[in-house]
Amino acid sequence: MVVDDHPMWRDAVARDLAEAGFEVVATAGDGAKALRVAPAARPTVVLLDLQLPDLSGVEVAARLLAGSDGPAPRVLILSASGEHRDVLDAVKAGATGYLLKSAGREELLEAVRGVHRGEAVFTPGLAGLVLGEYRRLAAEPAPSQEEDPAPELTRRETEVLRLVAKGLEYKAIASRLGIAHRTVQNHVQNTLTKLQLHNRAQLVRYAIEKNLDE
Question: What is the pTM of this model?
Answer without folding.
Answer: 0.64
